[in-house]
Each structure stands twice: as C-alpha cells, then as structure tokens.
Design brief:
single chain, alpha/beta, TIM Barrel, eight-stranded parallel beta barrel, two-stranded antiparallel sheet, 12 helices, 46% helix, globular
Length: 287
C-alpha cells in the first residue's frame, strides 16, 4: 500500500499537473484524479504527456470517481453511461483500475427496499461497464448515526451491509474502507482482517473527534489520522498489511484547520500524518 494524495479532500484546489507536483514534493506515491480532466489533457497534449508527467514525478494514479451521475435524474444518468467505457479504458491504460463512490445511509423518500432496488438499478450498469474495461468499483458505507437520523428511512451503513450490496452488484465490486466509518458503525479492525484483499478497492484514513461517542460523531467533522487517537490507526494499518492490501491510502479529514492552511502546508501536514500512521503501525514507510 502507498500514501496517496487527494487535494480535494484537504481543501486544496489544484490542477492535475499541480497535484502531481505537490505529491512528488511531499513523498506521496500516488494521487486521486478526475478522469474527465485527464481525458481533456490527453485530448489536448496526448497520452504520452500524461505518462511522462507521472513518470518524471515518480507518482502513480490512485482512485477516481466513476464519471456517471448515478444519483441524478434518469436522463442525466442515462446520458453519462455511454461515456463510461472510453473513460474507464483510459484510466486503466494509465495505470488505475480503482473507481470508487459513496452511498448515503438514508433517504427521505425511499424506504430501505425501494432504495436498495434504486441503487441496484443505477449502479449495476456502472459496475458492468467498469468490469468490461478491467476496472473495479469500491463502495463506501457511511457510518455516522447523526447522518442516518437526519433521514426518514435508514439505508446500508455497515461493512456487512455494504458487502452484501456489493455482492449483489457483481464480482468486480468491493469496498472503499474508511476508518472513520468503521468506527462510527461500531466495527473494529477485526472486520478488516476478515476481508479477502480483493474486496478492498480503496482506503481512506482520518480520525474521529475526541469527546464524542461513535453515535455523536458528525460526518463532516474529522481530524488527520492519528491526531486525536480515537480511531485505531495502528491496528487499521496493520490489518491492511496483514491481508496484503497494495492500493492507495488517502487522507480524508474534513478538517477546517487543514482547509484554512496554505496549500503547501496542508499537503505537508497530510503527508506527515501518513508517515505517523505507518510509524504507529510499525510499518516501513514506502519510498
């Protein structure tokens, strides 16, 4: 597994080229990216330009969001589907087969069964389109009870529930595992050790806020991994290593403190938090 930078997750606005440069300067092995942006760069400057940019920086591509607006109205969803194959093929050619998205843990209009059917209908063609191009889809369950309680009808919000849903979608569908959602859904690192590595498509790390129980945590208020010590980052990283996970590990802190920093400082403290996470787990830092 390798340290991966998502500039958007820490409130840093950066182009693809700028993100590559920031990642290289601060010791990240990869970056999350917009496949739509990369497609435009390839159309303008060629695929060789993107490959050279990554090679010269020693940075690889991490994960990307499937370019299908599956949550929108049916016309928008249908309009995006024909673009999926081309973009997924490009991502795969450039070295990334990991697409990921999140699932809201409740809804005000659809009860559980109706919502389950809706998500199957919308995401099955996405999963199939990705599979046809050799790509996988990671689904993120969202754990906080506070977010679930704000909706009329609860939906899938645990690792077991998302594993079942992933299995119903297809063999190339697994999990985006976020340590915050593991904690807020009342699971622990043993749940990770029980997973076949093929089911872990992508990983996010962060920390929960001190002074709150798991049920009091708010989805958009977190900290850098290892910052508060609420989440067991050492055990989490050890569990990922034990199952042989070899993909990106990305910080998603939703931290106002980090968002208010200058871009270079925000990337630096994010990189430092990953080095601390590897060290707490007793693992050698890649690179």
């Amino acid at each position: 597994m390798y340290p991966n930078l998502s500039t958007g997750a820490i409130g840093v606005k950066a182009t693809f080229a700028e993100a590559v440069e920031l990642a290289a300067r601060h010791g990240f092995g990869g970056i999350d990216f917009s496949i739509e942006e990369v497609e435009k760069i390839v159309a303008d400057k060629g695929e060789t330009h993107v490959r050279k940019l990554l090679h010269d920086a020693g940075v690889r591509l991490g994960a990307w969001g499937p370019p299908v607006n599956w949550r929108a109205d049916e016309a928008s969803w249908q309009a995006d589907l024909p673009l999926l194959a081309r973009r997924a093929a490009l991502a795969r050619e450039l070295g990334s087969d990991r697409a990921a998205t999140w699932i809201m843990p409740g809804d005000n209009d659809r009860d559980f069964d109706t919502n389950y059917a809706f998500h199957l209908e919308r995401l099955r063609p996405v999963a199939e389109g990705l599979a046809a191009q050799g790509c996988r889809l990671g689904l993120e369950w969202v754990g906080p009870k506070t977010l679930r309680d704000a909706r009329r009808y609860p939906f899938v919000h645990t690792v077991d529930g998302m594993l079942k849903f992933a299995a119903d979608l297809g063999g190339n569908v697994g999990l985006l595992v976020d340590i915050f959602h593991l904690y807020t859904s009342h699971a622990d690192v043993s749940a990770i050790r029980d997973l076949p590595v093929a089911q872990v498509v992508n990983v996010h790390v962060n920390d929960a806020l001190a002074g709150r129980t798991p049920d009091q945590q708010l989805d958009n208020e977190r900290a850098l991994p290892g910052e508060t010590g609420v989440c067991d980052i050492a055990g989490f990283m050890q569990a990922l290593a034990a199952i042989g996970y070899d993909g990106p590990v990305t910080v998603e802190p939703f931290s106002q403190r980090v968002r208010e920093m200058a871009p270079e400082d925000a990337v630096r403290v994010t990189a430092d938090s990953l080095r601390r996470s590897w060290a707490l787990a007793g693992l050698p830092f890649p690179g």
